[in-house]
User: Fold Acylglycerophosphoethanolamine acyltransferase from Pigmentiphaga humi.
Amino acid sequence: MAMDAPRSLAPQRQDAWLWRLVATGASFVLFGLGGLALRLFVFPPQGLLPGSRRVRQRRARRAIGGSFRWFIRFMVRAGILTVDFRGAERLGRPGQLIVANHPSLLDVVFLIGHVDGHANCVVKHGLVTNPFTRGPILSAGYITNDQSLEMLDRSAEVLKQGEALIIFPEGTRTPVGSLPKLHRGACAIALRGAQVVTPVVIRMTPRSLTKGEPWYRIPYRRMRYSIHVGPDIDPARWRDRHSPPIAGRLMNDFLHDYFASELNHHAGTGN
Assistant:
């Protein structure tokens, strides 16, 4: 008797899959409503308080960071994900460029939620036209990535003024099955104005919330995030020895190799 052809088995759904689906939908709704609430009810009263533009921006950033921390706690307690964040206390120093890989939609939420309120961030240019994110971005003075020389100069200037700056050099989320491909803009900013560069390696298993993936296509089990802050890097090691184009290329190669090595190492050990 002929044997049936073997069938590929999809991973079995785990960790209260149906509940996670409902909770994930609720999280997206809460995120949108939270951004709208900040724009309508938090930032206008803050704008009436005395202080310079930078003071008002810092108030707005603290409000955004607090709301992101609350949002992370909600997702953890709802059973959507777990987070292991190591070295967060080293983030947010004056003149620090924080460079991170970008596997999922939530990466910026984790970093802004864990970095002190004076940190700036380079965000996707299209977010400034979104009614739910426009208010927070403008009130906090975040830098929109329009890939112009003015963006690079402004990013370098905020570092010189003593702000920390968060950037995702890939410019978009890492495709599934690929390693990060870093654009040189982050290195150009670092060479122009950073006192120190600190890499942050973000891992998540199973992969989800990738570019183009609908929110309801949740993974078969709970997402597990591992976020580790790496050793500081002094941009002067390239800035003082090479011309800007060569220094930018060499520094970018160094960061690319660092992220590839860290991600491959942990993939190989199953961590």
